[in-house]
Amino acid sequence: MMVSPRDIGHRDAPPDDGTSAHARGSFFGRRKGHKLRIHQADLIDNLLPHLALDIGAPAPERLADLFDGGPEDVRLEIGFGGGEHLIAEAQAFPNIGFIGCEPYVNGMAKILSQIEAHNLRNIRLYAGDAAELLAWLPPRTLARIDLIHPDPWPKRRHWKRRFVQDATVAAMARILKGGGEFRFVSDIDDYCAWTLAHLMHSSDFVWTAERAADWQKPWEGYTMTRYGRKAEREGRVAAYLRFRKIS
């Protein structure tokens, strides 16, 4: 897939009513699929409460206080699906704290099984709407936000349901530290162009790519998800976009 600055722009996009939509909440998908196995249900009932963020309470001034041992930085992954990428990152960077947001119950059950199996202590979870989580997080506290293979909502009338909107770009800019990054992966050309348009329209971010390989190939250490492997088998090519928060 080829994406370049001349491919992007708002000229083909409908009026962005994402601000009002995301102020109310941004989750439009299913929250539960197949029936959970007995142990998965037990993890939801007994392990998740120990790891879940309570956004009904005031956010801590330092996100590191959410974790045992005080990690040096905190990252967020939005919509982690089966959790392959998030688990691999948490294992590779034990001194980093990770927040995973996923409203889909079955995805939450899968990652809880992996957290238990690997005895991971540097992950916290939010089983709800990412827009609400972004509004709760304190300003300039995250080092990175990852959004990997999000639902593209391909029909034009559903574009307002996409996570990337002007409102969420502004919310991410508020909570990222200066020099922090928003990383986006998708195999849907239209959503990649949409994301480039919204991020380059923002005065808070700069696209880090200097050559085609910078978006055509995964960044170093990237863990391919099951969805990513499926896209490759079906001949779809992903783009790997990185945007740096301007200090």
TrEMBL record:
Source taxon at top rank: Bacteria
Binding site for substrate: 155, 187
A cellular component annotation (GO) from this entry: tRNA methyltransferase complex
Database matches in SUPFAM superfamilies: S-adenosyl-L-methionine-dependent methyltransferases
Residue ranges of the region described as Disordered: 1-26
Record keywords, A-Z: Methyltransferase, S-adenosyl-L-methionine, Transferase, tRNA processing
Record EC number: 2.1.1.33
GO MF, one example: tRNA (guanine(46)-N7)-methyltransferase activity
Residues given in the record as S-adenosyl-L-methionine binding sites: 77, 102, 129, 151
Catalysed reactions, as listed in the record: guanosine(46) in tRNA + S-adenosyl-L-methionine = N(7)-methylguanosine(46) in tRNA + S-adenosyl-L-homocysteine
Pathway where it operates: tRNA modification; N(7)-methylguanine-tRNA biosynthesis
Coiled-coil annotated residue ranges, if any: none
Matching NCBIfam families: tRNA (guanosine(46)-N7)-methyltransferase TrmB
Protein family per UniProt: Belongs to the class I-like SAM-binding methyltransferase superfamily. TrmB family.
Function: Catalyzes the formation of N(7)-methylguanine at position 46 (m7G46) in tRNA.
PANTHER family, A to Z: 3-DEOXY-D-MANNO-OCTULOSONIC-ACID TRANSFERASE/TRNA GUANINE-N 7 - -METHYLTRANSFERASE, PENTACOTRIPEPTIDE-REPEAT REGION OF PRORP DOMAIN-CONTAINING PROTEIN
Entry protein name: tRNA (guanine-N(7)-)-methyltransferase
Gene source species: Bradyrhizobium icense
Organism taxonomic ancestry: Bacteria, Pseudomonadati, Pseudomonadota, Alphaproteobacteria, Hyphomicrobiales
